[in-house]
Design a protein that fits this description.
Structural class: mainly alpha
Oligomer: single chain
Strand order of the largest sheet: 1-2
Radius of gyration: 36 Å
Order of helices and strands: HHHEEHHHH
Strand content: under 5%
Length: about 220
């Protein structure tokens, strides 16, 4: 009976639920950049290595896995801060009175919630839009200010290194391919394009013209 039940389980279309094992995770081996790979410490996590290099491992906020001190809460510079810090306080306000001493208007605080974006109004002090794109003054970015790690300096030096343009040389097979087309069709590039036997990859007119000019043929 037990054997029949086992056979029925094996034939069932329901996926088997496998619990994850306790195998240790494989150490991350960076292969993107030689400078980072040489300075990488496999005993540290990716975030710890990037912090040691002075780089950012994630553009967004971290969801967890970062060691924090007890009682330390993440600080958000754009978060609203309560004006009374969670406690009701009696505050003095400015008022306007008429000739009889009656209050006619209360001058309220323009930013009671201590909103850091309150100063960014639709119109600035000079009537300009603060969200308008800034004009380019022609100055180039000079890199990250402040002390830099050796890895960052090497990465910046590698990024600022001029790139040498590699000249592409035609292979012997390509030269033979062009020679067969020229021997059969002469300077008729349109006929070369339509030739299914000598041009099986259906190279376009512009592509064949560039290849022929590079090879020295006058088309």
């Amino acid at each position: 009976m037990g054997r029949e039940l086992q056979k029925r389980k094996n034939r069932s279309s329901r996926a088997k639920v496998k619990m994850p094992g306790n195998r240790p995770k494989k150490a991350l081996n960076p292969r993107g950049n030689d400078l980072i790979a040489k300075a990488w410490d496999k005993k540290q996590t990716m975030s710890q290595n990037y912090s040691r290099f002075g780089l950012v491992a994630k553009l967004g906020t971290t969801a967890g896995g970062v060691s924090k001190k007890p009682g330390q809460a993440p600080k958000n510079p754009l978060a609203y801060k309560s004006a009374d810090q969670g406690m009701l306080k009696v505050r003095e306000v400015k008022v306007e009175r008429d000739a009889d001493g009656k209050i006619v208007r209360i001058i309220r605080d323009e930013n009671p919630l201590n909103d850091p974006l309150n100063a960014l109004d639709s119109d600035g002090e000079d009537g300009e839009n603060p969200f308008a794109p800034m004009e380019d003054d022609g100055e180039e970015w000079g890199g990250i200010d402040g002390p830099q790690s050796e890895v960052v300096r090497q990465l910046e030096a590698e990024a600022n290194r001029p790139v040498e343009k590699k000249v592409r040389h035609q292979s012997e097979r390509e030269k033979e391919f062009l020679q067969r087309l020229v021997d059969k069709h002469g300077d008729d590039v349109d006929a070369m394009v339509r030739d299914m036997k000598l041009n099986p990859m259906q190279q376009t007119r512009g592509d064949l013209s560039r290849r022929l000019k590079k090879a020295g043929y006058k088309i």
